[in-house]
Amino acid sequence: MSEESDSLRTSPSAASLSESELPPPPAPTGYVCSLTEDLVAKAREELQEKPEWRLRDVQALRDMVRKECPNLSTSLEDAFLLRFLRARKFDYDRALQLLINYHSCRRSWPEVFNNLRPSALKEVLASGFLTVLPHTDPRGCHILCLRPDRWIPSNYPITENIRAIYLTLEKLIQSEETQVNGIVILADYKGVSLSKASHFGPFIAKKVIGILQDGFPIRIKAVYVVNEPRIFKGIFAIIKPFLKEKIANRFFLHGSDLNSLHSNLPRNILPKEYGGTAGELDITAWNAALLASEEDFVREFCQPGPPCDSILGQALPPKGLSSEAPCDDSMRAVKSQLYSCY
Q1: CA distances from residue 117 to 157, 217, 334 in whole angstroms, order as listed
Q2: Is residue 144 exposed (0-12), middle (13-18) or buried (19+ Cβ within 10 Å)?
Q3: pLDDT tens-digit series, residues 82-135
Q4: pTM for this model (two decimals)
């Protein structure tokens, strides 16, 4: 699953100059690269990241934000802006759009993003709905493990699960290693019933996929689905129309064939629940890591801010992220698709 070749970076102020004619990058402003030599080489090859011009690229994006989005309430620190440059292979225009989308998403779905902090999601974390496995895959990708069967709809709404996923992504993307390598998702659909699947309709699907594809600076390299019941055909039928072809091609359905899964995720990095040799699945370490980050999330997500319009101006959320309520017709369509799988 190789990355597609994206367009080369474009600088708004120096597009007509060759790199040999450009002025040297500005003096360091506190950012210290934590990437290993191998990851520096990988970032250069896959993301068009050149260490000798890294700070120049960050400054170019910073200048674009100040010029084109002067009211955008965002961090302009080097490390933060680098996330968006890496996610869009150092194409300045696409990185800026991703940054705008990132903030637009957060303000267009208050049920998910208001008061987003680990202590508010203790019940979700304790349920085991999600965790990050302790070992990375052979490419260095962290493995986000989702287990929808652990969710009891009568306990809390599906948006709480989405909040926990976003919280986890925010924590993961703080690592430069994750920014370069990306993540993979291991989704275990064992025991997911028709009634539970019906909660994930087109309205929710469009918003979640809109965030993951166009509103968050993370590279999803693969989604491995295991133990999917027949009902998953209906779930995927709901999801697929909103997926870009590149992402849709990264879904791999393994059913109960764990040997097939092991061809992508070796047994030595998986817990025994998935035929691995890395011990029992343990959610406590990741939960502790999230809870230890409480103050960071309070600063980022729990402070009063200006109205969305004053921040984003004419910027619109990515397709599918409007705050319109789902209509009855779309919900009836969901149930129709799910029932057709039986």
Answers
A1: 17, 19, 31
A2: buried
A3: 999 999 999 999 999 999 999 999 999 999 999 999 999 999 999 999 999 999
A4: 0.83
Q: How many helices (H) and strands (E) does the chain have?
A: 17, 5
The fold for domain 37-108 equals: Helicase, Ruva Protein; domain 3 (1.10.8)
Token look-up 């019940």 returns 123
Residue with tokens 């120096």: 14
CA distance 122 to 179: 27
Q: Where in the chain is the domain with CATH 3.40.525.10?
A: 113-298
DSSP 3-state of 337 = helix
Q: Which CATH class is domain 113-298?
A: alpha beta
Query: 171-217 pLDDT, tens per residue?
Result: 999 999 999 999 999 999 998 887 888 888 888 889 999 999 999 99
Please list the residue range(s) of the chain that carry CATH number 1.10.8.20: 37-108
